[in-house]
Specification:
Two copies of one chain form a homodimer.
Chain A: H1 6-23, H2 36-42, H3 47-59, E1 63-66, E2 72-75, H4 84-92, H5 121-136, H6 140-144
Antiparallel strand pairs in A: 1-2
Helix pairs in contact in A: 1-3, 1-4, 2-3, 4-5
Chain A binds a DNA duplex (30 and 30 nucleotides) through α3.
DNA sequence: TTTAATCGGCACTAGTTTAGTGCTCTTTTC
DNA sequence: GAAAAGAGCACTAAACTAGTGCCGATTAAA
Protein backbone atom coordinates (compact mmCIF):
# COMPACT_ATOMS: atom_id res chain seq x y z
CA UNK A 1 0.00 0.00 0.00
CA UNK A 2 2.47 2.59 -1.09
CA UNK A 3 4.75 1.80 1.77
CA UNK A 4 8.44 2.40 2.30
CA UNK A 5 10.52 -0.51 3.55
CA UNK A 6 11.96 -0.75 7.04
CA UNK A 7 15.42 -0.39 5.57
CA UNK A 8 14.38 2.99 4.24
CA UNK A 9 12.96 3.98 7.61
CA UNK A 10 16.18 3.08 9.34
CA UNK A 11 18.25 4.86 6.76
CA UNK A 12 16.15 7.97 7.13
CA UNK A 13 16.46 7.90 10.90
CA UNK A 14 20.23 7.72 10.61
CA UNK A 15 20.41 10.49 8.03
CA UNK A 16 18.17 12.84 9.98
CA UNK A 17 20.28 12.20 13.05
CA UNK A 18 23.45 13.02 11.13
CA UNK A 19 21.86 16.16 9.74
CA UNK A 20 20.95 17.25 13.25
CA UNK A 21 24.51 16.66 14.41
CA UNK A 22 25.74 18.71 11.47
CA UNK A 23 23.37 21.54 12.32
CA UNK A 24 24.67 21.66 15.88
CA UNK A 25 28.24 22.00 14.73
CA UNK A 26 29.95 25.29 13.85
CA UNK A 27 29.78 25.79 10.12
CA UNK A 28 33.53 25.72 9.60
CA UNK A 29 34.04 22.43 11.43
CA UNK A 30 34.48 19.31 9.32
CA UNK A 31 31.83 16.62 9.79
CA UNK A 32 33.01 13.84 12.07
CA UNK A 33 32.26 10.26 11.22
CA UNK A 34 29.75 8.29 13.25
CA UNK A 35 29.70 4.52 13.29
CA UNK A 36 26.72 2.32 12.61
CA UNK A 37 27.09 0.95 16.11
CA UNK A 38 26.89 4.41 17.65
CA UNK A 39 23.68 5.19 15.78
CA UNK A 40 22.27 1.82 16.73
CA UNK A 41 22.99 2.58 20.37
CA UNK A 42 20.88 5.71 20.18
CA UNK A 43 17.84 4.35 18.37
CA UNK A 44 16.28 0.99 19.20
CA UNK A 45 16.47 -0.45 15.72
CA UNK A 46 18.01 -3.75 14.55
CA UNK A 47 21.68 -2.89 14.19
CA UNK A 48 22.33 -5.13 11.24
CA UNK A 49 19.46 -3.69 9.24
CA UNK A 50 20.71 -0.24 10.05
CA UNK A 51 24.18 -1.19 8.82
CA UNK A 52 22.57 -2.53 5.66
CA UNK A 53 20.82 0.76 5.07
CA UNK A 54 23.98 2.77 5.65
CA UNK A 55 25.86 0.59 3.20
CA UNK A 56 23.24 1.30 0.52
CA UNK A 57 23.45 5.00 1.23
CA UNK A 58 27.19 4.86 0.81
CA UNK A 59 26.81 3.06 -2.51
CA UNK A 60 24.31 5.69 -3.56
CA UNK A 61 26.82 8.46 -2.94
CA UNK A 62 24.89 10.00 -0.06
CA UNK A 63 27.29 8.90 2.66
CA UNK A 64 31.07 8.60 2.74
CA UNK A 65 32.56 5.75 4.70
CA UNK A 66 35.80 5.30 6.57
CA UNK A 67 36.86 1.80 7.48
CA UNK A 68 38.84 0.49 10.40
CA UNK A 69 38.91 1.48 14.05
CA UNK A 70 37.42 4.96 14.54
CA UNK A 71 35.76 4.55 11.17
CA UNK A 72 32.16 5.30 10.32
CA UNK A 73 29.98 7.37 8.05
CA UNK A 74 29.33 11.02 7.33
CA UNK A 75 27.20 12.96 4.86
CA UNK A 76 28.93 13.39 1.52
CA UNK A 77 27.30 16.82 1.11
CA UNK A 78 25.47 19.33 3.24
CA UNK A 79 21.94 18.30 4.18
CA UNK A 80 20.30 20.88 1.95
CA UNK A 81 22.04 19.35 -1.04
CA UNK A 82 20.53 15.91 -0.47
CA UNK A 83 17.01 15.21 -1.66
CA UNK A 84 14.57 12.66 -0.33
CA UNK A 85 14.27 11.33 -3.87
CA UNK A 86 17.95 10.49 -3.87
CA UNK A 87 17.69 8.83 -0.48
CA UNK A 88 14.70 6.66 -1.35
CA UNK A 89 16.26 5.85 -4.69
CA UNK A 90 19.45 4.68 -3.00
CA UNK A 91 17.61 2.62 -0.41
CA UNK A 92 14.94 0.90 -2.49
CA UNK A 93 15.29 2.02 -6.06
CA UNK A 94 13.24 4.70 -7.77
CA UNK A 95 9.50 4.55 -7.17
CA UNK A 96 7.86 2.62 -9.98
CA UNK A 97 4.20 2.82 -8.93
CA UNK A 98 3.30 0.12 -11.44
CA UNK A 99 5.19 -2.79 -12.93
CA UNK A 100 5.09 -1.28 -16.39
CA UNK A 101 5.74 2.37 -15.60
CA UNK A 102 9.49 2.28 -15.23
CA UNK A 103 11.48 5.45 -15.45
CA UNK A 104 12.50 4.82 -19.02
CA UNK A 105 9.38 5.36 -21.11
CA UNK A 106 9.57 1.82 -22.46
CA UNK A 107 8.11 -1.29 -20.90
CA UNK A 108 9.40 -3.39 -18.07
CA UNK A 109 10.06 -6.99 -17.12
CA UNK A 110 9.42 -9.00 -20.22
CA UNK A 111 6.60 -6.93 -21.65
CA UNK A 112 3.10 -6.17 -20.46
CA UNK A 113 0.15 -7.92 -22.06
CA UNK A 114 -2.13 -4.96 -21.66
CA UNK A 115 0.28 -2.41 -23.05
CA UNK A 116 -1.05 -2.17 -26.62
CA UNK A 117 -4.52 -1.26 -25.35
CA UNK A 118 -3.66 0.03 -21.89
CA UNK A 119 -5.61 3.19 -21.04
CA UNK A 120 -3.63 4.03 -17.91
CA UNK A 121 0.00 3.79 -18.95
CA UNK A 122 0.39 7.42 -19.83
CA UNK A 123 -1.60 8.88 -16.91
CA UNK A 124 0.21 6.70 -14.41
CA UNK A 125 3.54 7.73 -15.84
CA UNK A 126 2.53 11.34 -15.25
CA UNK A 127 1.45 10.52 -11.73
CA UNK A 128 4.74 8.81 -11.05
CA UNK A 129 6.50 11.94 -12.23
CA UNK A 130 4.40 13.96 -9.81
CA UNK A 131 5.35 11.81 -6.85
CA UNK A 132 8.95 11.88 -7.92
CA UNK A 133 8.88 15.66 -8.16
CA UNK A 134 7.48 15.77 -4.64
CA UNK A 135 10.30 13.59 -3.35
CA UNK A 136 12.95 15.54 -5.20
CA UNK A 137 11.67 18.75 -3.70
CA UNK A 138 12.12 17.65 -0.10
CA UNK A 139 15.65 18.00 1.24
CA UNK A 140 17.23 16.16 4.13
CA UNK A 141 17.59 19.58 5.71
CA UNK A 142 13.83 20.06 5.60
CA UNK A 143 13.25 16.62 7.08
CA UNK A 144 15.62 17.34 9.94
CA UNK A 145 14.14 20.73 10.76
CA UNK A 146 11.46 19.71 13.21
CA UNK A 147 10.17 23.18 13.78
CA UNK A 148 9.54 23.71 10.09
CA UNK A 149 6.12 24.76 8.96
CA UNK A 150 4.48 21.64 7.48
CA UNK A 151 3.72 23.45 4.27
CA UNK A 152 7.35 24.42 4.04
CA UNK A 153 8.20 20.82 3.34
CA UNK A 154 6.59 21.06 -0.03
CA UNK A 155 7.59 24.52 -1.05
CA UNK A 156 9.62 23.22 -3.99
CA UNK A 157 6.68 21.18 -5.26
CA UNK A 158 4.70 23.49 -7.47
CA UNK B 1 9.11 0.23 -3.69
CA UNK B 2 6.16 2.55 -3.53
CA UNK B 3 4.22 0.34 -5.87
CA UNK B 4 0.50 -0.04 -6.46
CA UNK B 5 -0.89 -3.57 -6.53
CA UNK B 6 -2.11 -5.34 -9.64
CA UNK B 7 -5.62 -5.18 -8.29
CA UNK B 8 -5.34 -1.41 -8.28
CA UNK B 9 -4.01 -1.41 -11.81
CA UNK B 10 -6.91 -3.51 -13.03
CA UNK B 11 -9.40 -1.37 -11.20
CA UNK B 12 -7.95 1.77 -12.70
CA UNK B 13 -8.06 0.31 -16.19
CA UNK B 14 -11.74 -0.52 -15.75
CA UNK B 15 -12.56 2.89 -14.31
CA UNK B 16 -10.75 4.79 -17.02
CA UNK B 17 -12.55 2.69 -19.60
CA UNK B 18 -15.90 3.49 -18.01
CA UNK B 19 -15.03 7.17 -17.88
CA UNK B 20 -14.21 7.12 -21.56
CA UNK B 21 -17.52 5.46 -22.35
CA UNK B 22 -19.28 8.12 -20.31
CA UNK B 23 -17.46 10.89 -22.16
CA UNK B 24 -18.60 9.48 -25.50
CA UNK B 25 -22.24 9.51 -24.42
CA UNK B 26 -24.58 12.48 -24.69
CA UNK B 27 -24.68 14.29 -21.37
CA UNK B 28 -28.35 13.65 -20.71
CA UNK B 29 -28.12 9.88 -21.25
CA UNK B 30 -28.02 7.67 -18.18
CA UNK B 31 -24.89 5.57 -17.79
CA UNK B 32 -25.37 1.97 -18.91
CA UNK B 33 -23.99 -0.85 -16.88
CA UNK B 34 -21.05 -2.86 -18.15
CA UNK B 35 -20.25 -6.32 -16.87
CA UNK B 36 -16.91 -7.50 -15.53
CA UNK B 37 -16.85 -10.06 -18.32
CA UNK B 38 -17.27 -7.39 -20.97
CA UNK B 39 -14.37 -5.38 -19.58
CA UNK B 40 -12.28 -8.52 -19.31
CA UNK B 41 -12.97 -9.25 -22.96
CA UNK B 42 -11.54 -5.89 -23.96
CA UNK B 43 -8.39 -5.87 -21.85
CA UNK B 44 -6.15 -8.91 -21.50
CA UNK B 45 -6.21 -9.05 -17.70
CA UNK B 46 -7.10 -11.95 -15.39
CA UNK B 47 -10.91 -11.79 -15.28
CA UNK B 48 -11.22 -12.93 -11.71
CA UNK B 49 -8.80 -10.32 -10.44
CA UNK B 50 -10.66 -7.70 -12.38
CA UNK B 51 -13.92 -8.81 -10.79
CA UNK B 52 -12.22 -8.62 -7.41
CA UNK B 53 -11.18 -5.05 -8.09
CA UNK B 54 -14.65 -4.05 -9.24
CA UNK B 55 -16.15 -5.53 -6.12
CA UNK B 56 -13.86 -3.44 -3.94
CA UNK B 57 -14.75 -0.35 -5.91
CA UNK B 58 -18.42 -1.08 -5.35
CA UNK B 59 -17.82 -1.49 -1.63
CA UNK B 60 -15.94 1.79 -1.64
CA UNK B 61 -18.92 3.59 -3.14
CA UNK B 62 -17.23 4.38 -6.42
CA UNK B 63 -19.23 1.93 -8.51
CA UNK B 64 -22.87 0.87 -8.38
CA UNK B 65 -23.68 -2.72 -9.18
CA UNK B 66 -26.69 -4.44 -10.69
CA UNK B 67 -27.02 -8.17 -10.26
CA UNK B 68 -28.56 -10.78 -12.48
CA UNK B 69 -28.67 -11.15 -16.24
CA UNK B 70 -27.87 -7.85 -17.97
CA UNK B 71 -26.31 -6.71 -14.70
CA UNK B 72 -22.95 -5.04 -14.30
CA UNK B 73 -21.32 -1.91 -12.94
CA UNK B 74 -21.43 1.80 -13.58
CA UNK B 75 -19.86 4.88 -12.03
CA UNK B 76 -21.79 6.10 -9.02
CA UNK B 77 -20.88 9.72 -9.88
CA UNK B 78 -19.48 11.63 -12.82
CA UNK B 79 -15.79 11.07 -13.44
CA UNK B 80 -14.79 14.54 -12.32
CA UNK B 81 -16.33 13.84 -8.91
CA UNK B 82 -14.15 10.80 -8.28
CA UNK B 83 -10.60 11.30 -7.01
CA UNK B 84 -7.66 9.00 -7.43
CA UNK B 85 -7.25 9.08 -3.68
CA UNK B 86 -10.68 7.58 -3.24
CA UNK B 87 -9.95 4.92 -5.82
CA UNK B 88 -6.64 3.85 -4.35
CA UNK B 89 -8.13 3.98 -0.90
CA UNK B 90 -10.95 1.65 -1.95
CA UNK B 91 -8.63 -0.78 -3.69
CA UNK B 92 -5.77 -1.07 -1.23
CA UNK B 93 -6.45 1.15 1.73
CA UNK B 94 -5.04 4.61 2.33
CA UNK B 95 -1.30 4.99 1.71
CA UNK B 96 0.60 4.57 4.95
CA UNK B 97 4.16 5.14 3.76
CA UNK B 98 5.52 3.76 7.01
CA UNK B 99 4.26 1.27 9.53
CA UNK B 100 3.92 3.91 12.21
CA UNK B 101 2.57 6.82 10.20
CA UNK B 102 -1.06 5.84 10.06
CA UNK B 103 -3.67 8.42 9.25
CA UNK B 104 -4.63 8.88 12.86
CA UNK B 105 -1.78 10.76 14.49
CA UNK B 106 -1.29 7.99 17.04
CA UNK B 107 0.84 4.90 16.62
CA UNK B 108 0.05 1.71 14.81
CA UNK B 109 0.20 -2.05 15.21
CA UNK B 110 1.15 -2.64 18.79
CA UNK B 111 3.42 0.33 19.27
CA UNK B 112 6.74 1.31 17.71
CA UNK B 113 9.93 0.87 19.70
CA UNK B 114 11.57 3.88 18.15
CA UNK B 115 8.66 6.21 18.65
CA UNK B 116 9.81 7.99 21.85
CA UNK B 117 13.04 9.07 20.18
CA UNK B 118 12.06 8.82 16.53
CA UNK B 119 13.33 11.78 14.51
CA UNK B 120 11.32 11.02 11.37
CA UNK B 121 7.78 10.43 12.59
CA UNK B 122 6.62 13.97 12.13
CA UNK B 123 8.35 14.68 8.80
CA UNK B 124 7.12 11.42 7.31
CA UNK B 125 3.60 12.18 8.43
CA UNK B 126 3.86 15.48 6.57
CA UNK B 127 5.20 13.72 3.52
CA UNK B 128 2.34 11.24 3.62
CA UNK B 129 -0.05 14.16 3.67
CA UNK B 130 1.67 15.58 0.63
CA UNK B 131 1.29 12.38 -1.35
CA UNK B 132 -2.29 12.07 -0.23
CA UNK B 133 -3.01 15.62 -1.34
CA UNK B 134 -1.54 14.80 -4.71
CA UNK B 135 -3.80 11.77 -5.07
CA UNK B 136 -6.87 13.66 -3.94
CA UNK B 137 -6.19 16.33 -6.52
CA UNK B 138 -6.25 13.97 -9.48
CA UNK B 139 -9.72 13.10 -10.76
CA UNK B 140 -10.75 10.08 -12.76
CA UNK B 141 -11.72 12.58 -15.44
CA UNK B 142 -8.14 13.82 -15.61
CA UNK B 143 -6.82 10.28 -15.79
CA UNK B 144 -9.15 9.45 -18.65
CA UNK B 145 -8.34 12.55 -20.66
CA UNK B 146 -5.40 11.29 -22.67
CA UNK B 147 -4.80 14.54 -24.47
CA UNK B 148 -4.45 16.44 -21.23
CA UNK B 149 -1.37 18.47 -20.61
CA UNK B 150 0.79 16.47 -18.22
CA UNK B 151 1.08 19.38 -15.84
CA UNK B 152 -2.70 19.70 -15.86
CA UNK B 153 -2.88 16.49 -13.88
CA UNK B 154 -1.46 18.20 -10.87
CA UNK B 155 -3.19 21.52 -11.04
CA UNK B 156 -4.92 20.94 -7.70
CA UNK B 157 -1.65 20.18 -5.92
CA UNK B 158 -0.29 23.50 -4.73
C1' DT C 1 52.84 -7.14 15.57
C1' DT C 2 48.88 -8.27 17.69
C1' DT C 3 44.27 -6.83 18.79
C1' DA C 4 39.97 -4.94 18.21
C1' DA C 5 36.73 -1.91 15.90
C1' DT C 6 34.67 -1.03 11.78
C1' DC C 7 32.92 -1.37 7.06
C1' DG C 8 31.83 -4.78 3.14
C1' DG C 9 29.89 -8.87 0.91
C1' DC C 10 27.46 -13.29 0.59
C1' DA C 11 23.91 -16.31 2.01
C1' DC C 12 20.19 -17.98 4.65
C1' DT C 13 15.49 -18.34 7.22
C1' DA C 14 10.86 -17.13 8.51
C1' DG C 15 7.01 -14.39 7.92
C1' DT C 16 4.03 -11.51 5.19
C1' DT C 17 2.10 -9.87 1.02
C1' DT C 18 0.67 -10.37 -3.70
C1' DA C 19 -1.23 -12.69 -7.68
C1' DG C 20 -4.23 -15.72 -9.22
C1' DT C 21 -7.76 -19.60 -9.09
C1' DG C 22 -11.86 -22.60 -7.56
C1' DC C 23 -16.23 -23.20 -5.89
C1' DT C 24 -20.72 -22.04 -4.38
C1' DC C 25 -24.62 -18.93 -3.44
C1' DT C 26 -27.87 -15.26 -4.63
C1' DT C 27 -30.18 -12.31 -7.77
C1' DT C 28 -32.46 -11.34 -12.00
C1' DT C 29 -33.90 -11.51 -16.88
C1' DC C 30 -35.66 -14.29 -20.51
C1' DG D 1 -36.45 -23.29 -15.06
C1' DA D 2 -32.11 -21.92 -17.44
C1' DA D 3 -28.52 -18.83 -17.92
C1' DA D 4 -25.98 -14.57 -16.83
C1' DA D 5 -24.13 -11.84 -13.60
C1' DG D 6 -22.45 -10.13 -9.01
C1' DA D 7 -21.02 -11.66 -3.86
C1' DG D 8 -18.54 -14.33 -0.65
C1' DC D 9 -15.23 -17.66 1.12
C1' DA D 10 -11.08 -20.25 0.91
C1' DC D 11 -6.97 -21.84 -1.07
C1' DT D 12 -2.11 -22.14 -3.46
C1' DA D 13 2.23 -20.51 -5.25
C1' DA D 14 5.37 -17.00 -5.95
C1' DA D 15 7.58 -12.81 -4.57
C1' DC D 16 9.06 -9.64 -1.27
C1' DT D 17 10.41 -8.07 3.48
C1' DA D 18 12.63 -8.32 7.88
C1' DG D 19 16.05 -9.98 10.24
C1' DT D 20 20.26 -12.85 11.25
C1' DG D 21 24.90 -15.31 10.64
C1' DC D 22 29.33 -15.53 9.16
C1' DC D 23 33.60 -14.15 7.47
C1' DG D 24 36.88 -11.10 4.97
C1' DA D 25 39.27 -6.49 4.48
C1' DT D 26 40.91 -2.37 6.47
C1' DT D 27 42.87 0.50 9.91
C1' DA D 28 43.96 2.79 14.46
C1' DA D 29 45.79 1.82 18.68
C1' DA D 30 48.00 -0.85 22.33
Amino acid sequence: MLRLTKRTEYGLIALVHMAELAAARPAEAEAEVISARAIGDIFPVPKRMLAEALKHLQQGGILESTRGVRGGYRLSRSADQISLGEIVSALEGPPTLTSCAGLGAASADGGCEVEPVCPIRSPLARLRTGIWTLFEGVTLQALADRSADPTGLFSATG
